[in-house]
Amino acid sequence: MKAAEALLEKIVHGVTSQLSQKTFDVAPYIQGLISDASQGERYAVCGITSQHPLNMYFEHSILDGSYFLGRCRVKDAMLYKADVRGDELKRQGEAFTHQGAVIDVPADESIQIEASCLVKTLVHNFSHDPKYLDRFPVLNTCALDYANIHGAPTCGSVLGPFSTVDLTTVRDCVIGAYAYVQAGKIAHMTIDPGTLWIESKDRFNFQYRYPAAVLEAYVSHGPRQAPQGILCDFMAAKEHLWGALDQAAPPTTAGEMPDGTSVDQYAILRGQNRFEENVLVSQRAYLEHTHMGKGSNAQENCHVIHSHLAGNNVTAHGAKIIHTRLGHNVFVGFNSFLRGSASCPLTVGAGSIVMPHTIIDLKEPVAIEPETLIWGYIGGQKDLATQSIRIEAFKHSHARLERENMVFEGDGAALVAGLEARITHILEANGAFFDGTGHVGHAQQHRHMAYHTLQPYPEGALGGIYPTIEILP
Amino acid sequence: MKAAEALLEKIVHGVTSQLSQKTFDVAPYIQGLISDASQGERYAVCGITSQHPLNMYFEHSILDGSYFLGRCRVKDAMLYKADVRGDELKRQGEAFTHQGAVIDVPADESIQIEASCLVKTLVHNFSHDPKYLDRFPVLNTCALDYANIHGAPTCGSVLGPFSTVDLTTVRDCVIGAYAYVQAGKIAHMTIDPGTLWIESKDRFNFQYRYPAAVLEAYVSHGPRQAPQGILCDFMAAKEHLWGALDQAAPPTTAGEMPDGTSVDQYAILRGQNRFEENVLVSQRAYLEHTHMGKGSNAQENCHVIHSHLAGNNVTAHGAKIIHTRLGHNVFVGFNSFLRGSASCPLTVGAGSIVMPHTIIDLKEPVAIEPETLIWGYIGGQKDLATQSIRIEAFKHSHARLERENMVFEGDGAALVAGLEARITHILEANGAFFDGTGHVGHAQQHRHMAYHTLQPYPEGALGGIYPTIEILP
Fold first, then answer.
1. What is the ipTM of this complex?
2. How many Å lie between the alpha carbon of A239 and the closest alpha carbon of chain B?
3. Across the interface, which of B42, B450, B462 has its CB nearest the CB of A50?
4. Using a CB-CB distance cutoff of 8 angstroms, which residues of chain A are in contact with residue B473?
5. What is the strand order of the sheet A308-309 is part of?
6. Which end of chain A, C or N, has fewer beta carbons within 10 A?
7. Tens-digit pLDDT profile for residues A302-331
8. Within an 8 Å CB–CB cutoff, is residue A243 touching chain B?
9. How many CA atoms lie within 13 A of A235 on its CB side?
10. Which residues contact B396 (CB under 8 A, 6 or more apart)?
11. What is the mean pLDDT of residues A124-138?
12. Measured between alpha carbons, how far is A373 from A368 in angstroms, rounded to an integer?
């Protein structure tokens, strides 16, 4: 494993040299990963369809348990159970609109991951930075468990466990555990753990901060210490199920699917699940006793258990939905944790928006009215007074709005319009509006998927490293 | 499947244009293969070790159910359940001796398969033609079920089912079903079905011809007609077991193996098998209730069932051994079919050589004395009088020796010396003589094997065709 160890050292060196926050010591987080990895899945999976432009290149990297879709280039990197999704890549000649200006995409876009270490990280392109039209970079970056790099070119940064950088160009930053940032561009910043920050310059700024005790209970970590807390325990309890990937054996999916619906072969279905049309269940999604209404989706690392999704529901990457009924068009954001139980179910009324990184963990039944905006930590009905607002009311907020741990400044209608436009885009991209011929999205494109599975050298000087592999059309 | 159909047409055109025997119509043999293939295994497997120089390249080809090991380049070809073994490739700068002259190998050798259609075919390099030191070509060739291209550069030729070309450069030839040719170089020839021909110019010439009725019973074929007969039925009865490959799931091997022994993950073990040291069981070998003595091997497509191999036994590619006891150092040649039963077992004494393409199919027990050379068709003890000879006696044959359907001319000792040298080489290459540090061979090198599994485009214009894939160190 000499080459594998040398690779990690090189990655640590690269991240450290880019990071101006010299107090943050990356090495303890990365060291030990090789022994973790070598006990786990020693396969990488490449999804092959005729719809996604193929051009995958892997050089001198560890790819254990990872999944790739679309154009990507990985070099000198360690990816451990990471998902790299390139199914919304820009194509050469496409028109890209930025702040009113229309720019031609100069070449087919590719995801480029270099000198980085990504642990159970989701990388999804669809970036909005005109500087990166033909390549979506993740460079000299260390992302810890279940971080989410979503349309966010990231360089020289550290992402804490369950953190999300979303539509934000990130340079030389440390993003704390379970922090969510959507702020256009950030550099040389340290984002505190448990921060929810959505800013659109000159229009609005939304900030929420988890109480320290809540954050500690759900996810915390430190150097030489694996992330811990309720979110980690929840994921760990299901970890053994993904052994299927270890065998490189696509598990059998549940027979015939309705028109326009696809369930990835690397998803897991347990118990009785029902699927209507135009449903997308992505790789590493887990479904148990769940009804997926027409046009709903469960994206990577989502868990939807004993729940009912009425239709056009987005379950964004890493969200968990348990003993919950969602009305039509309810959106559940990244890494949210909605946990009811048989005796204390959760109901969310139609058209509601559950903000990313929301925790609703119930000891009593809770019903949320339709058209509600929800954020932060909710343990029971009374917390809704401070952690939610009717969308209509929020739209009329034009100045400063303060609630427990939350401050909003600016134009509420602009935030809502932004969220709604994005939800519509997500539904459209995922194929929710497929009509038999038009509005094709991921749910339809993924119905016919083939796979390449790759393994590293089993021993010797290159042991643990994957051969150089190039896959072209 | 438009591209797949166009590919087959192109292959037919290529073979036909190279073949001067215009009476042989290749098309009917190749047409229909796509529908066969699309119902079967849609995976190709690449074996990855640190011992075999990696350089695999696949372009515009169908590779269903095939297995690759070592450097190879496949272009515009259809391989269906083929095995391509490049683990005896020559390395740059190695000394190659040909008729006393020593030549430096100019570059690392690679197997090059182009514009060819190989069905369940074994391709093994280790060629002896100084013209092809850095590439081992199979070009414009159509090889039917279980043909064996063994160290035999082959161009513009058709190989019938269960035929073998061995250490022979083959150009513009039609090789009949179950024919075996080892003759240095052949061109513009038609070899009749059921021919066994071993010739070393100016030294010896061994020819045997199967009786037409026997050949018809064991393997026959015609245009638009799948090969049929006992050999085909035997293989077909086990065909469903290889579904494991279809799942790309390496089946679990039988726990701990003795030192120096390896069982490929794509081999199948049934019942109680025992393994001594330095045993090699290759991919697509099938073992059932068998004892593999020290240094024995079962190569690709071999079946060894209810049998006992005492030690240093070679079971060459495609050989079947059933209810048989082999003494030490018994060699069983390519595609031989040795079938005893519980009540009619076969015993072969130590040091015997079963020539390639020998059929021993018993209705009474048969015991063959040690140090015997055996060929042709043997149904009972009495057939040994005409189809075998003690090796010592054969060594003293200096002129013409005639037996039923067999003619030998030349120096018997030279043939025996050639066979014995080759058997020693095979045992050595396969690792039979491994002493804990030295004499490493395939059995030791294959103990740590990783795999890439590849799939074709599942649908669309390129449906059935594999993406272009390059695998480098």
1. 0.90
2. 20
3. B462
4. 462, 467-468
5. A274-275, A291-292, A308-309, A324-326, A346-348, A366-368
6. C
7. 999 999 999 999 999 999 999 999 999 999
8. no
9. 24
10. B412, B413
11. 90
12. 10
